[in-house]
């Protein structure tokens, strides 16, 4: 009977998720935004990533700080953020944050590099009507 083993594994995953969420909350409180972004992306939490972006933009010199953090993300993390911001951009409450991130990506990534992002074609097609 593997039911008990599966239950233990599910409980371990749930405990790990709770620990990561607490860590994310602590990172935001400590204003360690790069780690917070990375953790939120790894948890696949678009709304949490948006919350981190908004927190950065509320800081003094927020645009510059957002730029510093987005530029330091790995390529796979940037691809995830790009996928998230497509959804953010469709909502008028979140479109300014989405556009800020798009601007940073366009400013710091070469067109040839952007073309190699997974899902870039669909992202651009989705962004155009709202941009």
Automatic annotation (TrEMBL):
Main location, first listed in the record: nucleus
Listed PANTHER family: TRANSDUCIN BETA-LIKE 3 (PTHR19854), TRANSDUCIN BETA-LIKE PROTEIN 3 (PTHR19854:SF15)
Domain U3 small nucleolar RNA-associated protein 13 C-terminal span(s) in chain numbering: 21-131
GO biological process terms, semicolon-separated: endonucleolytic cleavage in 5'-ETS of tricistronic rRNA transcript (SSU-rRNA, 5.8S rRNA, LSU-rRNA); endonucleolytic cleavage to generate mature 5'-end of SSU-rRNA from (SSU-rRNA, 5.8S rRNA, LSU-rRNA)
UniProt keyword annotations, A-Z: Nucleus, Repeat, WD repeat
Keyword Repeat on entry: yes
Name by which UniProt lists this protein: TBL3 protein
GO cellular component: 90S preribosome; small-subunit processome
Molecular function per GO: U3 snoRNA binding
Origin organism lineage: Eukaryota, Metazoa, Chordata, Craniata, Vertebrata
UniProt superkingdom: Eukaryota
Entry's localization field: Nucleus, Nucleolus
Presence of keyword Nucleus: yes
Pfam families, A to Z: Utp13
């Amino acid at each position: 009977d593997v039911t008990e083993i599966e239950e233990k594994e599910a409980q371990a995953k749930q405990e790990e998720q709770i620990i990561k969420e607490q860590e994310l909350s602590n990172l935001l409180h400590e204003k360690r935004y790069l780690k917070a972004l990375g953790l939120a992306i790894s948890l696949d939490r678009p709304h949490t990533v948006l919350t981190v972006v908004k927190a950065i933009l509320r800081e003094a010199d927020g645009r510059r700080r957002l730029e510093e953090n987005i530029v330091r993300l790995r390529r796979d993390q940037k691809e995830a953020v790009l996928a998230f911001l497509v959804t953010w951009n469709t909502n008028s409450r979140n479109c300014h944050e989405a556009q800020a991130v798009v601007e940073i990506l366009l400013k710091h990534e070469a067109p040839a590099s952007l073309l190699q992002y997974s899902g870039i074609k669909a992202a651009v097609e989705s962004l155009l009507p709202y941009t």
